[in-house]
Amino acid sequence: MSNTDITPTRSMANMKASAPNLDIFGERVVSHPNEVPDFVRNMHQRLVSSASPDNKLFMDILRLTEAHPTDVAVTLLRCAPSCDRAAKIMWRNIASSGIAVDKVLPTLLCVLEDWPLHRVSTSDGDKTGVFALAATRVVWEILRLPWCPAPFMEYSPRLLVALLFQVFVSTEEMPDEVNTFWKECQEQLRLPTSPNRFAVQTVRALFRHLRYLDLLVSMERKRAWDTLLCADTHHYAMGLLAREMHRTANPLCSCIALRLLGLLSRREPCWDLPALAFLVEVLECPDMKEWSDSALEIISSRLQSKSREKRCLALRGLVVLSKNPLVAEAMRSLTQSLMDLLQDADGEVVALILSVFLNELQDRATLISNPTALQLAEVLQPLIDNDNSHVQLLSTHLFREVMELVMDKGSKPLKKHVNMSLLPLLFHCQDENQHVAEASRETLLCAVKFLKRRRLKQLVKKEQPWRFGEVLESLGGT
Q1: What distances in angstroms separate CA 292 from CA 248, 278, 286, one per listed residue?
Q2: At a CB cut-off of 8 Å and minimum separation 6, what does 44 contact?
Q3: CA separation for the pair 349, 312 (Å, rounded)
Q4: With contact defined as beta carbons under 8 Å apart, do 313 and 273 qualify?
Q5: Higher model confidence: residue 112 or residue 473?
Q6: How crowded is the C-beta side of 22, counted as CA atoms within 13 Å?
Q7: DSSP secondary structure string, 255-320?
């Protein structure tokens, strides 16, 4: 593989001597599968030396491919990984037959999904690795045809995921053998300077064949393809791609999401962050509703990740899932983990957790257990004075929900925390942020009602804050 096209597995002389006579191939069946790789190599060499191949050879290629698709595909990728002129003719001939390409495509996908080499043994016992980029070259050449083979439409979700994965891994790491292979491809075929750019080029070609032109225009306008090529911003671009697909109600969107659910169910795959970024953006797709439990399990497992980006994406996913009553019961098991994360100093993390709790409490038939109410009140009290106005607003709303939904027998232990919140809420009634001010006033009214302080309730309603402190002190307040 180190010398790509010019170094087949066997020497050229031995290959020509051992290869069966193809002149009679169309009239008989291969006597043994281990003959197939020799047939493929012989066909390739005949095309290398022939300026005008005959129709009989094309029929032979199709018959052999339909009968032995894996051996044909892998052998051709081995003997011509850069997809030279002869190999290009063979692959395009295969693409012309719906039956042949349908049988070959699963093998190409298996090669695409491995990085950097796909290991498989052909019938002759050859175990030489096949470059994933060699399969990408083949896909690119087929996509350059004026028609798109029907199986490409059927396999498009898996194909897109495999190509996007290649963009990521070829950006993150480039083994020496891949660098060597790609330099030879560049010299021979004038391909893009880097494999990840070529993978993006192939992704765009696939979208064109699928006729998602609005998507391509939008991604181009937002410079998303360049963002996809950078390791630090790759996951942002994946999220943007998901949003654009979701916006156009693309049926491909949920199919890709299901493929990614399968990837994320594995133990910490290397493409964890980009896959999660895509998945989170499409959780609201109608087709994803029945997969909510699986999504919840996968997303919640990322809550304890050391990566801040993964934690934030997991929480964003929980915000969406928490709106679905069907997963409400399962969400309750995450209460303690979310409580612990509320101690995080990151304002975005805290705001997302508060949003999850607020969504869970939208169902007024659900009462909060006493221990949960006390824990929430304890952590929310200081958050009402948080420097982040968004955190202030959310924590104030949530504090009100806790008071309104706590079980009757749990109201007495909660009174201490409610008492301590009165003055902070009163101060924020005059907050320069109008939303915070309004929320503070509503929550303050709820608090004095919870405490059954009628005089304080009247002062709040009459907007007489200067007397509030006096009355509170006379009543033995905080």
Answers
A1: 22, 15, 11
A2: 76, 79, 80, 86, 87, 90
A3: 6
A4: yes
A5: 112
A6: 25
A7: HHHHHHHHHHTSSS-TTHHHHHHHHHHTTTSGGGGGGHHHHHHHHHTTTT-S-HHHHHHHHHHHHH
Domain boundaries, the chain: 1-151+176-197, 367-478
Q: Do you know the residue count of the chain?
A: 478
* Residue whose pair of structure tokens reads 């199919």 in the numeric block: 255
Instruction: List the structure tokens of 119.
Output: 């290991």
As a whole number, the mean pLDDT across the chain is 85
Q: How far is CA 435 from CA 356, 357, 463, in A?
A: 20, 19, 17
- Residue 323, phi then psi, degrees to nearest 5: -80, -10
Buried b (16+ CB within 10 A) or exposed e, 319-353: bbbbebeebbeebeebbeebbebbeeeeebbbbbb
Q: What are phi and psi of 344, to 5 degrees?
A: -65, 140
What single DSSP character describes residue 369? P
Radius of gyration of the chain (CA): 31
Separation of alpha carbons 318 and 334, rounded Å: 10
Residue 235: name the closest of 181, 275, 286 by CA. 275
Which tokens go with 211?
Answer: 């006729």
Cβ(376)–Cβ(398) below 8 Å: yes
Within 173-264, residue ranges assigned H as helices are 176-189, 195-209, 213-221, 224-228, 234-247, 251-264
- pLDDT (tens digit per residue) in 368-394: 777 888 899 999 989 999 999 999 999
CA–CA gap between residue 131 and residue 118 (Å, rounded) = 6
CA 80 to chain centre: 33
Assigned token pair, 426: 């009163």
Higher pLDDT, 410 or 23: 410
The pLDDT value given to residue 161? 96
Q: How confident is the model at residue 26 (pLDDT cuts 50, 70, 90)?
A: very low
- Answer whether 203's CB lies under 8 Å from 160's CB: yes
Structure tokens that stand for 273 in this block: 């962050």
Q: What is the pLDDT of residues 247-268, one digit of tens each?
A: 876 789 999 999 999 889 876 6
d(CA 417, CA 376): 10
Q: What is the pLDDT of residue 478?
A: 45
The DSSP line for 167-182 is HHHHHH---HHHHHHH
Residue 12 has a pLDDT of: 36
Task: Give the per-residue pLDDT at 207.
Answer: 94
Which candidate, 117, 36, 39, places its Cα nearest to that of 71? 36
Task: Report whether pLDDT(59) > 50.
Answer: yes
What is the model's pLDDT at position 141?
94
* Residue 89: burial class (beta carbons within 10 Å; 0-12, 13-18, 19+): buried
Q: In the chain, what percentage of residues exceed pLDDT 90?
A: 55
